[in-house]
Amino acid sequence: MAVSEQPPRGRAPRARRPRSVVATLAAMLLATELVVVLLAALALLGLRDLPAPVALGGGGALIVLIAIAAALARRRAGIVLGWIVQVVLIATFAVSIPVGLVGLVFAAIWTYSMIVGARIDRRTA
C-alpha cells in the first residue's frame, strides 16, 4: 500500500508553529546535560564518592527532570524547569566540587543561550 501525500478526508493539515531559537537552544543544551549528568552519576558511583543509592537515585532523578524539561522546551514550563535544573546542578557543589564546576559551566551556557536566543527571537518576530 502506497503512502499518499494528501491528508485524510475531512481533516485539514495541522500547521506546526516554528520552534523558537530559545526552545531549540534549550532542548540541545538539556540533551547534552542529560548525557553529562548520566556520566557524572556513574563516575561518582565508580569513585565511591557517594553510596550507590545516593549516586544513582540522585542522578536518576535529575536525569528525569532534565528529560521532562527538554520535552517541554517549547513551553514556558520547560524553560522554567531548565532554570531549576541549572540551580540543582550548581547545588551539586555540596556533593562533588568537580561536578559542581561542570554545573556552573552549564548554568553559564544556559544563561547566555536564553539571553541571546530571546534577542534573536525578538528580532525575527
Task: Give an overview of the whole structure.
- With 125 residues, this protein is an all-alpha fold.
- The chain has one domain.
- The protein has helices at residues 21-46, 52-71, 76-91, 97-124.
- The chain is flat, with a radius of gyration of 19 Å.
- The termini are far apart.
Describe the biggest sheet? none
| Average of per-residue pLDDT values | 90
**Domain module count:** 1
Helix content: over 70%
Tally of DSSP helical segments: 4
What is the ordering of alpha helices and beta strands? HHHH
First-residue to last-residue Cα separation? 42 Å
Tell me the strand percentage band: under 5%
Structural class by helix and strand composition: mainly alpha
Gyration radius over CA: 19 Å
Total strands: 0
- Low-confidence blocks of residues: none
**How would you sum up the global shape?**
flat
In short:
This protein has 125 residues and is mainly alpha-helical.
List keywords for this structure.
single chain; 125 residues; mainly alpha; 4 helices; 72% helix
How do the strands and helices of this protein lay out in sequence?
Layout lengths: L20 H26 L5 H20 L4 H16 L5 H28 L1
Helix pairs in contact: 1-2, 1-4, 2-3, 3-4
